[in-house]
Write a structure and sequence with these properties.
Helix content is about 25%, strand content about 25%. It has about 425 residues and is α+β, with helices and mostly antiparallel strands. The protein folds into 2 domains: about 20-165, Nuclear Transport Factor 2, Chain: A (Roll); about 200-420, paralog of FGE (formylglycine-generating enzyme) (Alpha-Beta Complex), CATH 3.90.1580. The protein has a 4-stranded antiparallel β-sheet with strand order 1-2-3-4, sandwiched between helices.
Length: about 425
């Protein structure tokens, strides 16, 4: 009898502990804190959300980031202020609820899928996105999010098409994203680059097959609706330095366009070159122009870095336009030794923009140039911020910089480099 009572008591105690564990599970705790955070967002009172948001997440979360995007441009003329206020009202009004879908926690950290219910133009949507949380005392703090408003725009357009209705006129608000996609997608990025099992010519670097972050920005997104994505590329070699003429020196680019491309350090790169001339110059030495995906893989490495030296912009690393310095002069190849990609290719950000074999958009003759230059182009230089909104920048800042020209154009800040399939 006594043993039976002990056994029964043990079972009851175990059940109580189990129920207590359920009620205090990370899922329930995060759901509670998400409700608290949602209330703070609706009230536009981020002082109430201080214990639930890291400083990083405060800068990223939803509407708050819209102001940060425009503030980064240094001024807020009336049209920008009205745009911010209009976007704030639109996005806040359309979000009806924010709910927790799933949680994967390890005690101190958690990845949680969040569902945002939205009503826009008479259509209801439920869009899910990942969030990252950290335990802080007796509650969880939102550390990072991943939201891209382009998903909503695409869903809204699809709903109109399915109903046989023309899409509504877009109010002109810039799309924006929250969070750094690579923080989630590349959480387990290799600490060391994989060794390539093939040889490249001495003037080239080896890039092994694998995933590449194919980035899209500015006008490319506006006109095509493309999004950043991960694509697979095969083994290839890419020039270590920007293309130059055989007789180029540190002070002279040499002349003529019927010559073979070289890849050498310390010489003036080949500029004022048309796309067809760059293509022919590569083919004369048995190479070819790089595809857009190859160029991005070589520039950003397997983690898809935004800058050759990592995720933060440093105006002293590459020969790029900056707000503090302005446009710089063209420099000899390799003059900026820290401006080297993870695979060892120099000047993939700045100095000269580089022609690729990438069509700008189906149906257009234009070709894409990647990597930016020493110069500034505020029209083509629109870029999606990693966190929110738009900024108008010189297109030389990051490896995601992207613009286009008709293939017969030739500019003083445009050049190229070659690739090779081993």
């Amino acid at each position: 009898m006594r043993n039976r009572l002990i056994l029964t008591g043990g079972l009851v105690l175990g059940a109580l502990l189990l129920l207590g564990g359920l009620f205090s599970s990370p899922r329930r705790e995060i759901a509670r804190d998400l409700r608290h955070l949602r209330d703070a967002i609706v009230a536009d009172d981020f002082t109430a959300a201080g214990g639930y948001l890291t400083e990083n997440a405060k800068r990223q979360w939803w509407l708050r980031g819209l102001e940060s995007a425009f503030a980064a441009r240094g001024s807020k003329p009336d049209p920008h202020r009205r745009l911010i206020e209009g976007m704030t009202t639109t996005y806040r009004d359309m979000v009806r609820s924010i709910d927790l879908v799933a949680v994967d926690a390890d005690g101190e950290g958690a990845l949680a899928t969040v569902r945002m219910s939205i009503v826009l133009g008479g259509y209801a949507y439920a869009l899910e996105f990942p969030t990252q949380w950290q335990r802080s005392g007796d509650h969880w703090r939102l550390d990072a999010t991943l939201w891209d408003s382009r998903r909503l725009i695409n869903a809204h357009t699809a709903a109109h098409n399915a109903a046989g209705r023309p899409p509504e006129n877009h109010p002109g608000y810039p799309t924006f994203s929250i969070g750094d996609q690579n923080r989630f997608r590349w959480a387990d990025a290799p600490k060391r680059l994989p060794r390539a099992r093939f040889r490249c010519p001495r003037d080239m670097v080896r890039v092994p097959a694998g995933p590449a972050v194919f980035r899209v920005s500015g006008q490319r997104y506006i006109f095509s609706g493309e999004q950043d994505r991960v694509v697979e590329v095969g083994d290839f070699c890419i020039d270590r330095y920007e293309g130059s003429r055989p007789e180029a020196t540190a002070t002279s680019p040499d002349g003529g366009h019927d010559k073979a491309a070289t890849s050498r350090a310390g010489v003036v790169p080949w500029t004022l070159v048309r796309w067809s001339q760059a293509k022919a110059a590569c083919e004369r030495v048995g190479k070819r122009l790089c595809t857009g995906a190859e160029w991005q893989k070589a520039a950003g490495g397997p983690a898809g870095l935004l800058y050759p030296n990592g995720w933060e912009f440093d105006s002293g690393v590459c020969n790029t336009f900056t707000r503090e310095i302005g446009a710089r002069p063209l420099a000899p190849t390799g003059r900026f030794p820290k401006c080297k990609s993870p695979y060892g290719a120099y000047d993939m950000t700045g100095n000269v923009s580089e022609w690729t074999d990438e069509l700008w958009q189906d149906g257009w003759p234009d070709r894409a140039l990647r990597g930016g230059s020493f110069n500034v182009n505020p029209i083509n230089g629109q870029a999606l911020l990693p966190f929110f909104g738009w900024r108008f920048i010189g297109y030389g800042e990051s490896v995601a910089s992207l613009h286009h020209h008709p293939p017969d154009d030739a500019h003083a800040d445009d050049g190229f480099r070659c690739c090779l399939t081993p």
